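Researcher: Quick one. two chains, 682 residues in total.
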Amino acid sequence: MVTYIIRRLIGALLMLIIVSMVTFSIFFVVPRLAGATSEDFASRYMGRAASSEMISVTAEKLGFNDPIPVQYGRWISGVFVGSEFDTGAAIEQCPAPCFGYSFIKRQPVWPELVDRIPVTMSLAAGASVIWLLGGVSVGVLSALRRGSIFDRAAMSVALAGVSLPIFFTGIVSLVVFSYGLGITAPGGSFTPLQENPAQWAYNLLLPWITLAFLYAASYARLTRAGMLETMGEDYIRTARAKGMKESSVVVKHGLRAALTPILTIFGLDLGLLLGGAVLTESTFSLKGIGDYAVQAIVSNDLPKIMGVTMVAALFVVVASLIVDLLYAVVDPRVRLG
Amino acid sequence: MNAPTSFLELRDLRIHFPTDDGLVRSVDGLSFQLERGKTLGIVGESGSGKSVTSLGILGLHKGGRARISGEIWLDGEELVAASAEHVRLLRGKKMAMIFQDPLSSMHPFYTVGAQIVEAYRIHNQVSKKVARKHAVDMLGRVGIPQPDRRVDSYPHEFSGGMRQRAMIAMALSCDPELLIADEPTTALDVTVQAQILDLMRDLQRDFNAALIVITHDLGVVAELSDDILVMYAGKGIEYGTAEDIFERPEHPYTWGLLGSMPRLDRERTERLMPIKGAPPSLINVPPGCAFHPRCAFAGRNGQRSSTEVPELLESEGGHLVRCHMPREVRLDIWENEIKANLESS
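Model:
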């Protein structure tokens, strides 16, 4: 068990290093292959009026003339010890964890992300609870009543749920429930949980349900398939032969086994969502990480894009690490591996 | 419907499954009796209805698609008409089952002990601690070394033989009076098979349970059984004591089974005598005797074998045979054609 945990931790760490290298390469190595010079990089951080000598000086000061590994090392060390950027005009401070410094906005990326994390986290947490409970229970009932009207109806709705994009369901439900019936909050509303939990939930209800619908649909299908498979296993027959109640057979023996693969997918989905639910945040005008990423890309603000990429990757890696560890708790056979 | 005096009695049991292709007659008019402390071996090829019968006795077809008719009497109670809930409460307690593949038959996520505790606590209102102690006792009783440690092992940490022992411990945890073992040794190494058979024989004596052993392995049956029922296409075609079946078998199908059993006391050069053809589809069972398309002797009865379903009739002293050939002819064929062939080498 201990070796399993250590191996997973090392794996997660390696994954983060690789992601950081790839991200760094995309922004600082690939452009050079395409012919970009240090001055081209530096000019991005300066006004249009900057003379070519000023750009050369800045390129040197920002370290664009250093070897690539040194630049990469500097970037990474910023995460742990912070960085300073000498733009010639001033020395910009970027305290640890420095995930980049936006020269356009003249501020470090991390504090901005920290402001936005609660929004995305609230969105993801609420939605994931709804889709997990909803999707799994519908999937179980569908499997147990295979071929029934309930099963067919649920699976049709699930197909619709998987197929309909969130900017369609989201806008339709905003129009109907918020602006038509007035029973849910309009887009753009967010109240931090610690300020007013009731308002927090009320404001997020519609985004939660819309986002959960999308995921619940695929979870219902996955659960149904998993349950159909496990309920045919020999150990289910053994459980019945012991005289167990059918409800216990389904939950303790069937669902327990069917849930493990769903756990894996859930971890990854949650990790991805925490890195920014771009479409949902845009649809409901929520200022989360996804919205931040979109802004960064629109304004062509490289340090922001890199920062948000790294934070999103961190979420995915941490989520899959947690899933791996949970997996070992749930399935004892995993501990051997 | 008067209650029988036997501990277990099946009367004309039929278990049919409607499918898109037609009605599958898995069990089609099966009757037998079994007393406490006795062992019945049920033998037949795959698809002869052996396992369906055992699951039917346990009531595991209830609530499914199966159409069940006939009577199953267990200790004076009729189970076919009984409610599913009533049969559930008997299951595991009064009657228990051991399955073929102990690895797939135990839940991979729970420890062996937890699964025995679970079985015990369904039918006994005891604390987890008491149940755990019982589980340790049971594991010790089926010959698992260091049961107080192994109780916390998972099924995948056991060897095949150990797993089947644990399975037996689980089945016996509530002192069942009827134990059904469905191919209990098929998934095991030959050396382990013998140990498991010994264990089952010892435990049956200790518990004085009625035991049904379902197998296609005549060796297993010879080892354990008092009585033997040979099944073909959902029907019993020969029934008798182990001696009847091995010394004086009267049905051509039984001869075929005996002829296809490898034996060490025969020459290596001699070939086995497999039964020609394949078991019939249970949707389109051949008319007349279901075995006649594969039977070397069907021609001796004119058209009768292919038109008229033979009855299961008494040959002598409780030895029942379902065959159109007169008894003298059958005995004559056995003595002069079959037995000679089996022992010739």
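Chain B has 13 helices and twelve strands.
Researcher: Thanks, that's what I needed.
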